[in-house]
Structures are given as C-alpha cells and as structure tokens.
Amino acid sequence: MTEAPIILWFRQDLRLADNPALRLACDSGRPVVLLYVLADAADGRPWGGASRWWLELSLRALDLSLGALGARLVLRRGDPVSVVEAMAREVGATDVVWNRVYGGAAQARDAALMARLTENGVRARSCNASLLLEPWALRTGAGGAYKVFTPFWRAARAAIGAPEVLGAPTRIAALERPPASDRLEDWTLYPAAPDWAAGFGDWIPGEVGARARLDAFLQGGFGRYAAQRDEPGIEASSRLSPHLHWGEIGPRQVWAAAHAASAAGLASERDLDKLLSELGWREFNHHLLAERPDLKDAAFKPAYEAMPWRSDPQGLAAWRRGRTGYPLVDAGMRQLWTTGWMHNRVRLVAASFLVKHLLIDWREGERWFWDTLVDADEANNPANWQWVAGCGADASPFFRIFNPVAQGERFDPKGDYVRRWVPELAGLPDSLIHQPWKGTAAERNRAGMEPGDYPAPVVEHAQARLRALDAFKNLTPPSTDSL
DNA sequence: TTTTGAGTTGTTCGA
DNA sequence: GTCGAACAACTCAAA
Questions:
Q1: Which residues touch strand B (CB under 7 A)?
Q2: Domain count across chain A
C-alpha cells in the first residue's frame, strides 16, 4: 500500500528551480504526479501558432529534466477543471498544488477548480511563481489600482525587497505506476507542413535554455543594456521574454542574478535599474490585467472606443507580410514572422505604424502578435498595444507619432538590422537604407535591385501623420466653457 | 477637499 | 547643425 499521491499541476511555470508549488509537492514526501493539461478551445484564449511551437519544445525539455530525477510528465488534454478533478480521483490524490496563472479567464477557472476539489475533500493550494508581487498587492493611497507606471514602480521596489529564490528539488518521489499520458506528438503543437518555424532555431525553449540565455546576457549585453538596448542591430536586449512567459525562469531568479552580476561589476547601476524596470513593466501589465480582465478587447480609456478605425485589408496584409515600403517596419515584421520574436524598439515603430499611419484598430495588431510571437502574453501584449495606440494606462500622448525613417536613422544608423531582414535592400548605401524611394533608378540598379523588388510606401509619412493627428484630436470632446 | 507636480520609448518647426 | 518650444489637455497620486 503506497501513500496517497499529491498532484502538481504544471502551467506557465515549466521549470524545476524556484518553483514553489513543486517544492511544496516534493517536501510533502509523498509520491508526486506531474501533470500538464492542454486546455481545449473553450478555456480562455487559445495559444497562437508560435506559442504552440514553443510549448511543445518546452514540454519536451521539462520531461527530460524530470526524467533525470526519475519522474515523468503526465499529459492530458481538455477542460483543466475537469481534467485535474478526474486525475485526483484516478490516482486517489488528497492534495493538488499549482502556481497561479494571472490572466483574464484563469483566475475564475482557478477559483472554480479550488471549490470543486475542496468539495471532493481534496486539499488545493496555489502559489506565486511568476510575479515579484501579487498583481493586486499594491494599492494607491485612495485604495485603487495604479494607472501610472512611475508611482507603481516606486511602491513596488519598496515592497519587493530581496526576493527569496528556491532551489530545484534534488529528488521527486514518483508513483510506482504513473497514470497514462497522452503522446506529445499527438497534440500536433509543432507545425508539420509547411514548417514555418524553420527560422526559430536560435531559441532553446526550456529551463536549461532559459538559464543559458540569462547567463549569456549577463556576461554580454547587460553591461551595454542602458545604452544599447534600443538598437535592434546590436545584441544588447536580454531576450528573456519567452522564457519568462512560459515560466522557464522566474522574475525572482532574474532579479537575484542581475543584482549579483551588477555587484560583480558586469554592469552599472544604470544598466541594473533599466533591466529591473523592464521586469517592472511586466509586473505593471499584470497589475492592469488583474484590474481589467478584458484588456485585449476593451480600451483602457473608453473615449478611444469612438475612434473611427479604417478598414484596410490590403494595408493590414502589407503590414503583416513586411511590405509596407518602410524598411524598419518591414524588417521588424519579417523578423517576427521568421523568428517568432521582434526587438522591442521595432515593436514600437511597427505597432505605431499600424495604428497611426494606417489607422487600423490596435486589436488587429494585438491578434497578429498573439499568433506570431513566442512571447505572446495575455498581460504584456494587449497592455503594450494599448500603450502605443494611446488608449492604454499611462499611454503616450496621441501626437507622439513615430517617424519610421527617423527611428531607423537613429536606432539603426548603419542599417545592419534592415539589411539582415530586408535583404533586397542590402546593396543600398546607408543614406538610402531607411528611405529607398529617394534613390534614383540608377542607384537602385547599382544596389542590385530589380524593379518591384521592394514596394513603394503604402502611405506617405507626412500625410498619414496629419490624418492621424486629426482623427485622434477629434476623440477628445471640445471643451464646453469657451464662447 | 483642494492643490500640485508629474507623466517609458517623439516629431517638427523656427530661431 | 543645434536648441527649445509647441504639440492638448487630462488624469493620476500624493501632500
């Protein structure tokens, strides 16, 4: 007769280190059933294509790490509440533990599961593995949620202190006869034909890859982070976003490692502050999502719902395919399509272009990013789109319209980034790389370009800018006290 | 309750 | 070429 097992329900916490729910399960001394549930479409927002690709590889990596400890992952598919409940019954578990997912539908679902398990006499507990603070932990003096980043982050830094980091378990007691598992291949998360993920190869999904990525960053880009993280042609950003999203590494680990690296002289105080504030934006976005579970659907500032967005299928298609005629925008959109990721600075320019130059609803862009980004996140993606569109919390003023040429010349001065992702422009001189339409036929010819290689701009910048200013200005009702 | 200072990432124009 | 101001008002957070 074996002891009753405890179920660990893996979610967006696909790691062994600093995993409080896993630690709870292992410390119980009882056999652990390690469960992952692929939710069906009825449960919240279905994963996008790039996310599914990542998930398959991350689950493989997790299973491998667990295997080294003599355990294995059990895969099931369906409505998570029913699946977890059924599993508890199947193995006779008296305990279920998990790390919380902080999303729109997830919280209600967790509450439902907890109630159901409790009814069945099963003890259910959840932990926080993915955020430095609970998203509802901080309140303003008036008791509301923060809507401006700076005061939020000031309060957050004071509350965070020095977060504790848990080590990985050294052993996991397995059940003698673990429950049956789905075969990962049968989930067909990975694209078969065509394999559009062929260019995703730089990523190493999983905890080992996440740790390697963090270490490489701390040794390399960290010391240039504040100065150069805005330059897409240079490797100075951390590229941790997908690893953090899937919980292959947690923010507490990044926090601690960054402080240690900074103390060891690998980066300045400024670099450290900048990196921490990026973690801060991640916290802030989750704080906003907790406040507005419908963040991906509804403008944070309701006045923006009156915006007369244009219907422009051709413009949208050109944007998605990276054929707007603006090299920096196109380079970004192609990097996204090819690698599942886009540099942060270029995301701003590309998103601004869709919303301001094309006047297309930010939700269209949010959906495209959701499908194509390996770091597509329920909090970060909509919050950042809303910020760019002007309808978000603490958003940029509407008259701040990025000039894709000026941004290119400022942040990609030598055109390295554009040349990498828009190779048909590679032969152009630096002076034309961000505005190829200014080149003469002879110059294009000298650059090895054929007519039609690269499209003319879909909109003219100055005109589009004025159109956007006009449209956004009309959103704010005219003041009533003027004669 | 009222007041006050401030607010991630920009662009353009004119001196 | 460089610099400062204008761009529009509004809302937030704390005193």
A1: A 148-150, 230, 277-278, 281, 344-345, 348, 384, 387, 394, 396, 399-403, 406-407, 410, 461-462, 465
A2: 3
The stretch A412-418 carries a mean pLDDT of 97
Whether residue A170 lies inside any domain: the answer is no
| Residue A135 lies inside a defined structural domain of this protein | yes
Same domain as A141, residue A121: no
Look at residue A73 and give its three-state secondary structure: strand
Q: What confidence category does residue A10 fall into, taking pLDDT thresholds of 50, 70 and 90?
A: very high
* Closest nucleotide to A479, Cα to C1': C9
Rounded Cα gap, residues A133 and A139, in angstroms:
12
Task: Note the pLDDT of residue A476.
Answer: 63
Q: How many CB atoms lie within 10 A of CB A176?
A: 6
Does A439 map to a domain? yes
Q: For nucleic chain C, which protein residues have CB less than 7 Å from any of its atoms? A: A 140-142, 144-148, 151-152, 154-155, 397-399, 469, 473, 476, 479
| Whole-prediction pTM | 0.96
In-domain check, residue A237: yes
Structure tokens at A421: 């992702």
Q: Say if residue A478's pLDDT is above 90.
A: no
Q: Tell me whether residue A235 is exposed, middle or buried, using C-beta atoms within 10 angstroms of its C-beta: 0 to 12, 13 to 18, 19 or more.
A: middle
The CATH number given to whatever domain includes residue A332 is: 1.10.579.10
Q: Is residue A269 annotated as a catalytic residue, yes or no?
A: no
Given a cut of 70, is residue A483 above it in pLDDT?
A: no
The residue type of A169 is P
A385 is annotated as an active-site residue: yes
C-alpha distance from residue A364 to each of A93, A205, A279, A339 (Å): 44, 27, 26, 20
Q: What is the pLDDT of residues A275-295, one digit of tens each?
A: 999 999 999 999 999 999 999
Q: Residue A267 sits in which domain range?
A: 131-163+207-291
Instruction: Report chain A's mean pLDDT, rounded to a whole number.
Output: 94
Helix (H) / strand (E) containing A63: helix A49-68
pLDDT for res A480: 39
Q: What is the pLDDT of residue A218?
A: 98
**What's the mean pLDDT in A78-90?**
96
Q: What is the CATH number of the domain that holds A59?
A: 3.40.50.620
A30 with A98, same domain?
Answer: yes
